[in-house]
Amino acid sequence: MRVGWLFSLIRSGSSVTAYAAAAPWGGVVADEPFGPWDRTGPPYNYPAEQARLMGLFDASGFTLDGAVRSSLDRLLGELAPPSGRIVVKIPHEHPDPGSVSAFPEHRTAFLLRNPLHRLNSVYVRGMLNGGRKPIHDNYDLGQFTAFARRWQREPNRVLFDDLQREPRKFFGAIYRAWEWEHTDADLDRAAGYARLHYHAASKKIAPRSNPRNVVSVAQRALPDEAIDAYLGDRFARDLMESAGWSTNPDDYRKPAAAPAQAGG
User: Fold this and answer.
1) Is the dihedral of CA 95, 179, 214, 32 positive or negative?
2) DSSP characters for 154-189?
3) Is 216 or 42 the better-scoring residue by pLDDT?
4) How far is the CA of 141 from the CAs of 15, 101, 227, 248, 254, in angstroms?
5) CB 3.0–4.6 Å: which of 27, 92, 99, 209 could bond 85 by disulfide?
6) Is the Cα dihedral 244, 250, 254, 255 positive or negative?
7) What is the arithmetic mean of pLDDT over 11-37?
């Protein structure tokens, strides 16, 4: 098997990246195999080992101990396509990326997105409704900072922006990180998949959505306090500037409401 891990934060474009990267070879995406959801039913239909893996991972304190590693090996073996190429997608803070060293033949890549576009996606998608808490306190600034510092240290890293700006270069960087042999045609197929598919979340594709019109950029739902928290944080602001992301708060604010028209 040729296994490449993709680490990111939620709402960072990891779904389209993972599925597009696997597409040229009919590869498989092990989409959040450690949970927190049982994915043995539709649309994933993973083997029963995935539910067992989730339980073992929880019992281990979210580490890749011996039992978890053995279970993951079994799951990946059952999922492996003829090409043997598998993407393990991890848009969460566990397991720790460093623990992948327990699998000497596996390789990692790290994906980072503009933190305010990413956070805006959480709000636009209504992920905070119903008592759910997919982000930490202070608008997830602490988790973003921790992941972004890790991203800075990693040689095998990409920016979500490049998926649309230079998709062939974007996938080429990922394949080199995973040490996957590839051709120009493979890059074209990966870029073509990303151009034609809009992953609303994980494997769920929105068939009538335009991949070029990213909802979390076209619509704005961030509270001003969230914008101020990120742009007022020196590390986050410096990183945004170095990545070429706007630090103008007006570029992230909700549009002002139109003034009411006088009746008559």
Assistant:
1) negative
2) -SSEEETHHHHHSHHHHHHHHHHHHT----HHHHHH
3) 42
4) 22, 27, 10, 18, 20
5) 27
6) negative
7) 94
pLDDT averaged over every residue in the chain: 91
Task: Give the integer Cα–Cα distance in Å for 210 and 42.
Answer: 24
Region 163-178 average pLDDT:
96
110-164 confidence digits (pLDDT tens): 999 999 999 999 999 888 876 667 899 999 999 999 999 999 999 999 999 999 8
Which residue(s) pair with 233 in the sheet?
none
Determine how many CB atoms are found less than 10 A away from the CB of residue 95.
Answer: 21
**For the purposes of burial, counting CB atoms within 10 Å of the CB of 154, is it exposed (0-12), middle (13-18) or buried (19 or more)?**
middle
A 10 A CB-CB count for 45 gives 9
Relative to beta strand 85-90, strand 107-112 is unpaired
Determine the Cα–Cα distance for residues 30 and 80; give it in Å rounded to an integer. Answer: 10
180-190 per-position pLDDT tens digit = 999 999 999 99
The candidate with the shortest Cα–Cα distance to 202, out of 106, 116, 127, is 127
**∠ CA 120-98-178, rounded to 5°:** 80
pLDDT over 90 percentage in the chain: 80
pTM of the model: 0.91
Q: Which two structure tokens, joined as six digits, stand for 196?
A: 């034609």
Cross-strand partners of 2: 85
Residue type, 195: R
